[in-house]
Amino acid sequence: MNIGIIAHNSKRTLIEDFCIAYKGILSRHEIYATGTTGRRIEDVTSLRVHKFLPGAIGGDKQFTEMITRNAMDMVIFFYNPAMVDSSDCDVMTVVEACDMNNIPCATNIGTAELLILGLGRGDLDWRLSVRAEDIV
Predict the structure, then answer these.
(1) Superfamily assignment of 2-74+89-109+117-135 in CATH?
(2) What are 55-84's pLDDT values in tens digits?
């Protein structure tokens, strides 16, 4: 499965702790992240992360493009709602792209834990057949 991870600056420590806690599950999947977040995840977990550009210089667009192609199976996007600027549409762009493609998306630790535990149990295996249909 292809797992996408994004974290705004104020949530990077939280995403690092999350990835450390669920390293066993994440290690069985392909991880994609925007530049700085991906590097930090690699540093604390030694997991291999496919890194896009940093979000501010186009990584969020690369990330969303992969979602739009239905090539992402799950997205975890930790952001700080108190710091989201109305001109900063990356959060809604990512969430809307996930909704349009039926890609599970978590924007907080509670939902992220439910998704990652479901991933570990195989509850998201249905995504493999969805992606296979898109390839045909």
Answers:
(1) Methylglyoxal synthase-like domain (3.40.50.1380)
(2) 788 888 999 999 999 999 999 999 888 876
The β-bridge partners of 2 are 30
Domain boundary assignment for the chain: 2-74+89-109+117-135
Q: What is the pLDDT of residue 84?
A: 61
What does pTM read for this prediction? 0.90
Residue in 43, 60, 85, 125 annotated catalytic: 60
- Mark whether 99 is an active-site residue: no
Question: Which residues, other chains included, contact 48 with Cβ-Cβ below 8 Å and sequence gap of 6+?
Answer: 31, 42
